[in-house]
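User: Sorry, folds how?
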Amino acid sequence: MANIVSLDKVSKTYPAGQIFDEISLGIDDGDRIGIVGLNGAGKTTLLRMLTKAEEPDEGRVTHRRDLRVAALPQTLDLPPEATVRAVIVGTAWLPAAFAAEHEWAGDSGVRTVLNGLGMPHLGLDAPVGPMSGGERRRVALAALLVRPADLLILDEPTNHLDVAGIAWLARHLLQRRGALIVVTHDRWFLDAVCTSTWEVADATVRAYEGGYAAWTLARAERVRVAAETEARRQNLLRKEIAWLRRGPPARTSKPKFRIDAANALIADVPPARDSVSLQRLAVTRLGKQVYELEGVSLRAGDRTLLDPTDWLVGPGDRIAILGANGAGKTTLLRVLAGVREPDGGRLLRGSTVKAAFLSQELRELPNDMRLLEAVEEVAKRVRLGDRELTAGQLAEVFGFTGARVWTPVGDLSGGERRRLQLLRLLATEPNVLLLDEPTNDLDIDTLAALEDLLDTWPGTLVVASHDRYLVERVADTVYGMHGDGKLRNLPGGVDEYLSHVSESAGFGAPSGPAAAVARTPDLRASEKDQRAAKKELAKLERSMDRLTQKEEQLHAKLAEHATDYTKITELDAQLRAVQQEKAEVEEQWLALAEIAG
């Protein structure tokens, strides 16, 4: 693989703080890199430096000669008078150096891309000015996909795409030549497309092999190693402090190097990372009836979104609704939330239902208030488990610490505003959550915290989302809205939805390396093998618990006999043997977990 872009000891600082400190990275031809990190960590800044749209304060960014770099930024500036054709195959947006010489450049090829991105209705001669932000973004993405580029950089390409559009884009990018860099919070997309992951955090960039799943495992291992290192540091610190306190009271001096070592241990505390720990707030008791739709129909202008439909949503139901943009998902949620009335039929709502509706818009946030005031407007005190928290303490639980609670709501980032919106809803103690695209603008760490919260949600959950990872994790039942006025139960989940979309569009089944992306693997073992695997898993888990306890005991003994070289050698050999045995048991557990499902 030939190197096409290099960053050499690059540093970047803004008034709010240092973003990067002497980072060195390289991109090879054929690399497919996913970039992850918290909101505000510097992902977009990194992309701008890679494209040379922004210069580093120190260090340098080097491109291979004649390198063609095409980028989809977060904010677009398309000329409003330009037509779709002029943007995609002309020079209305991209310079002539990116002439669309690729085989996709013909009208039929452009139409294929637009269909794949969920815009079959779009005319090539339509002006982009009157289009919605999502449509303009998809037109710009199509312009990049029909043109050749040595390096394609996409900042949140899955925004405004539905599940089918995201799956199509993943297949297309797998077949595309050249290097790819993508910033996205869509974890399924990262796993499907990327072969390596860059994590932007703590003014540096850490590179990992593999997509989202591999990065998650590697990060967990890094945290585990850091925890072990900190545990050893704490044991050594206790020993040093005990030594400093030991001895006759008359002794007034001790060897300076021992005092310096103890002080260094006390000072050497790793900085706490800014994180979010969403925990379940109090929930109002939910009765036996939640929602019952009797012949409910929905319309948008002359278009029918939902034919007369009977539908029952019960207590504890966990439902996901899939559908293309404009299919009626948001309208259905708004009816359940009581924001609008159905166009026909009637909705029966349980007397104990206390619903919280997380909309896609952020208009309901009070931009003229400070963050703490916006929380206190909803609740000054709330129950979190068995504790009662003030509004300020609740804000800290959601990651708003220190002076951040006094920030005007209007100055918060998109991810912070989304997090505040969720905080305000949960503080009302709802028993039904209606979530419309809840993952919009949230970084991956906050998404993981949100999913942990939803995993244990005791009430009823109805979520409309294009985030396949979220849907497959938190929902027990999936319904599809395909634009034909029907609300269909999909026992096969996302795979059944994508299959229905492909059949409706007349697409054949994908082949080659893209085939694996179109569906979730379903290589299931027989029920007999699964039962046997689950039994063995239980045994292995007990073995792991026993080995973990033994490992902890040996660590304690090592600390206890820190000055006895002979004893330490003996204990260290025992510890290595236990760790080796534990690693083998974990390998067996992982293999059996695949069979057990």
User: Anything to note?
Assistant: DSSP finds 18 helices and 20 strands in the chain. The longest strand covers residues 3-14. The longest helix spans residues 212-245.
